[in-house]
Amino acid sequence: ILRNYELSNMRFNELFIHYYEYIQRLNLHRSDLQSAETLTKANYDISSPYHTGIGLLYLESYIGNDNFIDIIYRLTNLPLNNDDFESILKNSTDKNIDWFIDEYLAKRQSLDLKIDVSNELRKITYKVSEKNNRSIPYKVSLIKNDSILFSKWHDKYLEYQIPDLNADYIAINPLIELPEINKSNNWYYLKNNGSKPIKVLLLGDIENPKYKKLFLRPEFTYNYYDGVSPGLNIFNTGIKYKAFNFELLPQFSTKENTLVGSSKVTYNLQNENKNNYSTIFNIFYTTNHYKENLRYQVFSPSVSMLFRDNNNLRSNVKKLLSFSMFSVDKDVYEKNPNVLENYTVYNLGYTYSDIGISKYLKTSANTALSDNFGKLSVVFDYRKLFKNNRQFQFRFYFGKFLWNNRLYDNFNNNLGRSDGYLLLDKYLGISERTGLLSQQFIMAGGGFKSIFENPSSNDLMISTNINIGLWKWFEGYLDLGILKDKNQKTRDFYGTGIKLNLLPDFFELYFPISSTNGIEIDDYRYYNKIRFVLSYNIDSLINLFSRKWF
User: What is the pTM for the complete model shown?
Assistant: First the structure.
């Protein structure tokens, strides 16, 4: 079974190109000639040295072993500067190797070689191109049963012909590879009209340009209304990132005995030379149940533009501009004139973040517009970790309806929960207002941990949340808020308590002490007031440990 995976057949030296391509496809790589003080940890320890070493192996294959050994000997016996390095390279061979410094080492822009083939009259006509017209020598080979029948180096992007030797593939650089943003277009299948064989694998793997790969991953989710929902995630992206990604996750609801699940199609248009380093086009669909026998469906296309300082990847500052449309369709059991079940919402959002290990700063502004309401929200979130390992957090929320035609309840601002009308928050029981599941806390809306009798507003909400580290995992918190309904007076709220911060953003407990309700801990049903954070987002957990590298 393991031999079907490329990872199990990988030679040790092949690891280096895969490490580099992993970072490259996240658009986090740098030029090899960039000074060390401008590099991230991943650049300094992995991508820059690995990319240079791979390039030297490629250069050795191109100019020959004897010339390459001569270069290494001369480099290791002379005190050099950059001019000496370039001069030794150029004087070591009759071949033109300007490309090695000018294109391969100096430029950050990724390579993407592509081969176009026509196969007729017992001859193969092929032409190689490079997406950004970068001049790089390349080797073209004919391959049959993993054996090379023919190979030839070229240094120009011209059209060439070779005899058809009944090969399986024609490929660019099948043995000595260069890091590329897309390897699938390096190999052309000479049979079946060029349609490559499909390989289906469990979990994931590194890519192999000889095949189209489809991955299967068993998954399950849980919510109160669907119960445990096992499913099979069908997706096309392995370990290394791809520009075009799709996921299809059909699941079986064990409580409702019906199909639920989600699907997603994403295309990431990366730009390696501009501050707008990524533009993501996304189409998303999900369906589950929000009450017993009541299904909801959400369909959402979106465009997100991400910005950063492209000359300084060590900076944690990132900006996001997004436009989304959400179409929500909910089954109705009993019609409630104060609740709208089917609606479309348009969101325009802007986020600024500067997130590091010791400092966390994130602020966002979001406008939600529909036929029935218009809403503006602003969130400011700041965290500081001090040298004594104590943390201070300050969050501010402002939410205001621009208009609210029918005063529908499900769009209201809420002190202690997300407004939830998009049904995308990871609540285990999204409609529960009593019992254990109603005590789940997600930092959204007003961010209050105490539970109040009427915590919502159809006009204005302003809140402040402050956390201060006390001792180890224990923090104290203070929540202050103002609610105002349309044509009504303002209402003031406060809440204080202790936070047990076991794993930030993943598992936390909140113990209210005092609030507008009175002294919370005097209530004999105090266990009903304890709030908990529980998240199983694996990607976010990985980012928690890997952020210092990127």
Answer: 0.87
